[in-house]
């Protein structure tokens, strides 16, 4: 009796694509699927969440994600090879090398690209994104110790990029359109504390101002960033970290639907309108919404691996956007309804300017149920508070508000 082995093609070997392959190969004991992964980058999948550590002593090999590799006869990984086109009628993809690869199932896991605001000069030599090992190699090569570098965008990744410039010996500036740093995660008071603390680390912060243009010096390279208030900042390097956009450029020519704000439109099981094609990770607009974190992409990968094996996938549902991180030595945590969006929500906060800490808890209208919170400067209570979202206020909450934490 002959066994039919079907071919799964995965477009993109990033964090979600890698997880899909690991899940599938882990579950597929019978060897029902042969997997061909086409990855545009020269590196096999790596821990993009820890990307910044590449400029702080870790190598590409240190960041590589463990998993099934070259010894696996049912896995073929082609690096430096992108998917250039999908032919849904023929069930094939054409690679950037011009090869045609047939698929029984196709999973799109192409991630995102940094959003570059279309200001004049945005494409000058010396302007970079902050997304890949290649970007960091390019930034490292362009960095000039002692000279200024400007990061456009003061969110989480922008602050990481500014720290990267600092580690390369540059003088980092951060330009943020919103009136505070990390506007998605923290409120005005939290942003104030964060701004003061990162300024002490040598970052120069410019909030509430747009970037108008980037100008070149006589050598044709970036020389300055002109701001909308008329001022300008000298810059030998400019790093864009103003959000991301899903890599959905394969959708249009293949006749696949896009979400309203981009991304391959998929249902709760990550299925496109084509029964052979799924999308996972940051490129997937699940019921119209893209998710810019690793954990949601891992859930999508696990669900699709199970569907491929006929085991039934888990519908995606809600994503948890809680964050806890340590940036430039400053702890920041944001969880649940951090911005008190719920009707009647009550905000209780405590600011300690001397200590450089800020804590806010959001409770429901009757002040019994914890809805969310923000912690800046000291996020030790996060682990105790977060599981109580939707429940009562734990002792850590009372201690925080009393200033005895
Ligand atoms: C500096 C930094 C810090 C981060 N910190 C955090 C964090 O603290 N917590 C968190 O949850 N998330 C964080 N993230 C986000 C996290 O890295 C992403 O959510 C995650 O990598 C998404 O996985 P993905 O597979 O969808 O996309 P990616 O990991 O970007 O992988 C997509 C891959 O597909 C490739 N590709 C694109 N188009 C094609 C094509 N046509 N053919 C073949 N290959 C293609 C890309 O080159 C890339 O290799 C961070 C990201 C960065 C850059």
Structure characterization notes:
This protein has 405 residues and is α/β, with parallel strands linked by helices. It folds into three domains: 6-113 and 244-308, 3-Layer(bba) Sandwich (FAD/NAD(P)-binding domain), CATH 3.50.50; 127-240, FAD/NAD(P)-binding domain (3-Layer(bba) Sandwich); 323-402, FAD/NAD-linked reductase, C-terminal dimerisation domain (Enolase-like, domain 1). The protein contains nine helices and 25 strands. It has helices at residues 15-27, 60-63, 133-142, 156-167, 188-200, 251-254, 294-308, 382-385, 395-402, and strands spanning 6-11, 33-38, 75-78, 83-87, 92-95, 100-102, 105-108, 112-114, 127-128, 148-152, 171-176, 204-207, 211-216, 222-227, 232-234, 237-240, 244-246, 264-266, 277-279, 284-286, 323-327, 330-336, 346-352, 357-363, 370-376. The strands form seven sheets. Strands 3-2-1-7-19 form a five-stranded parallel beta sheet, with helices on one face. A five-stranded parallel beta sheet has the order 9-16-10-11-12, covered by helices on one side. The longest helix has 15 residues, at 294-308. 41% of the residues are buried. The mean pLDDT is 94. Bound molecules: flavin-adenine dinucleotide (FAD). Flavin-adenine dinucleotide binds next to helix 1, helix 4 and helix 7.
């Amino acid at each position: 009796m002959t066994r039919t082995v079907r071919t799964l093609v995965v477009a993109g070997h990033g964090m979600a694509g890698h997880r899909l392959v690991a899940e599938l190969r882990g579950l597929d004991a019978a060897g029902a699927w042969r997997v061909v992964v086409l990855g545009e980058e020269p590196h096999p999948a790596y821990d993009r969440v820890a990307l910044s550590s590449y400029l702080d002593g870790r190598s590409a090999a240190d960041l590589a994600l463990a998993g099934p590799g070259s010894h696996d006869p049912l896995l073929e990984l082609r690096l430096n090879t992108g998917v250039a086109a999908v032919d849904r009628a023929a069930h094939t993809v054409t690679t950037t090398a011009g090869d045609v690869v047939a698929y029984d199932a196709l999973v799109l896991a192409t991630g995102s690209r940094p959003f570059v605001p279309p200001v004049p000069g945005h494409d000058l030599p010396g302007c970079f994104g902050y997304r890949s090992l290649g970007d960091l190699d390019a930034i490292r090569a362009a960095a000039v110790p002692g000279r200024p570098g400007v990061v456009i965008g003061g969110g989480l990744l922008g602050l990481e990029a500014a720290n990267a410039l600092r580690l390369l010996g540059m003088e980092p500036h951060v330009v943020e359109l919103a009136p505070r740093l990390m506007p998605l995660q923290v409120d005005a008071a939290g942003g104030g504390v964060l701004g003061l603390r990162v300024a002490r680390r040598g970052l120069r912060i410019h909030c509430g101002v747009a970037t108008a243009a980037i100008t070149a010096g006589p050598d044709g390279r970036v020389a300055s960033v002109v701001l909308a208030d008329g001022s300008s900042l000298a810059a030998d390097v400019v790093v864009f970290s103003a959000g991301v956009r899903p890599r959905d450029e394969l959708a249009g020519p293949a006749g696949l639907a896009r979400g309203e704000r981009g991304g391959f439109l998929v249902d709760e099981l990550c299925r496109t309108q084509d029964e052979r094609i799924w999308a996972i990770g940051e490129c997937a607009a699940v019921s119209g919404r893209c998710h810019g974190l690793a954990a949601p992409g891992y859930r999508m990968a696990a669900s699709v691996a199970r569907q491929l094996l006929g085991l039934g996938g888990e519908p995606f549902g809600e994503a948890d956007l809680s964050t806890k991180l340590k940036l430039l030595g400053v702890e920041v945590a944001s969880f649940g309804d951090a911005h008190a969006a719920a009707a009647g929500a009550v905000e209780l906060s405590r600011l300690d300017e001397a200590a450089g800490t800020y804590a806010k808890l959001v409770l429901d209208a009757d002040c019994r149920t914890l809805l969310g919170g923000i912690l800046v400067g000291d996020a030790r209570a996060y682990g105790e508070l977060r599981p109580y979202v939707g429940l009562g206020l734990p002792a850590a909450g009372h201690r925080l508000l009393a200033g005895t934490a």
